[in-house]
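This section describes the prediction task in plain terms. A model, or a person checking by hand, is given the sequence of a single protein chain and must write out its three-dimensional structure as a string of tokens. No templates, partner chains or ligands are provided. The sample shown here is typical of the held-out split.
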Amino acid sequence: MNRTASALAALAVTSLVLTSCGRDDAGGGGEAQSTEVAEGAATGTIEVWAMGTEGDELQEFSADFVKDNPDAEVKVTAIPWDAAHNKIANAIASGETPDVSLIGTTWMGEFAEAGGLMPTPEGLVDEADFFPGAWGSTEVGGTSYGVPWYVETRVLYYRKDMAEKAGWSKAPETWEELHQFATDMKEKGGADYGLSLQPGQTGSWQSVLPFAWSNGASITNEEGTEYTIDSPEMAEALDYYTSYFDEGLSPSRLLDPGELESGFADGTYAAFISGPWHTGLVEEAGLSTDEYAVAPLPGKDSGPGTSFVGGGDLAVFSDSDNTDAAWKYVQWLSEAETQQRFYDVVGDLPAVKAAWETGELAEDPQLQVFGTQLETTEAPPAVPTWEQVAATIDTLVEQASKGDAEPEDVVKEMQTKASSIGTGL
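The expected answer:
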């Protein structure tokens, strides 16, 4: 699905440390919410930056907003994801920002702390309307600096036909069941590997942290001022995660592009964890919905477990020339009906829960699994240094997966390196 390229690119782009230019030295992270948006229709020009397919489609899609706000004009500039971070960073530093932009969820802390983003106005939207993990991606130091636009999360994919052969009529719901499931898929179901997990390298934190969150681990304290990675919960989760490599239940090398999908289709890999885009990819590889299924992630003692939530947020820049109209445009994009229609155009999963109540989102069994999982998700901490710490975690996860270091020692090293970097708040 198109949203995948957007979400993954947002997570992969290297983060830069920003310096505030001409703003309060305190930056973001503790400001009160901004004033309420004025009554009445939007007026004036609203300059918008958006990336990926969202950037390609948003101009035409915004025609309905302009129809309802005839004195307003929306100008969308499509920005490539691989150039977006630096472009936004430079715009904030120079004070030459648009009014509104799509912001990758892992960038929120950095840009808010730099003073580049306005706090979300009181009463603009209702936090309860959004999936909790998605809303959490907008909060920096207890203050929201935007509104979730679209989301993605990860679930368990498994070969249903192979599971039945291995004696499983339903998906595993606990860690113990998942381990037995992977073992049975290898020993009875005919798979070479019962569950494919990422053994480190870029983005592996997205695979490891759901196990940690499901075990009660936290990455920072509540205020976001200190990393709290070194905990028994985190060590236990990493030990469980690496057991799949130790026991040969998961391949210990990073798979080549396309290898997971083809291996899932030919039975080499019986299960894996990924997002909604993989439904299309595995079907292109030759599997039918009779042969595979998706299920919420198992929890430690009961399901569903806590999964990763990513996607994109909408933010208004502090240097916007038309903040009132900008927030009205963000508000419109956050309406359930608008989000459902945007799903029909682009395929982005809505961040607003009510958008899932009608149409394909309510009727498609696979999509409903993702909707169920989205109720139990967490976003990475919205702190300025997260990308740096995430890269450190990726490297250390690889050491643990290869058996070069004990999980408990790896977690301590994660804490040491993260503490030396600091959260930036």
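For orientation: Residues 1-33 have pLDDT under 50 and may be disordered.
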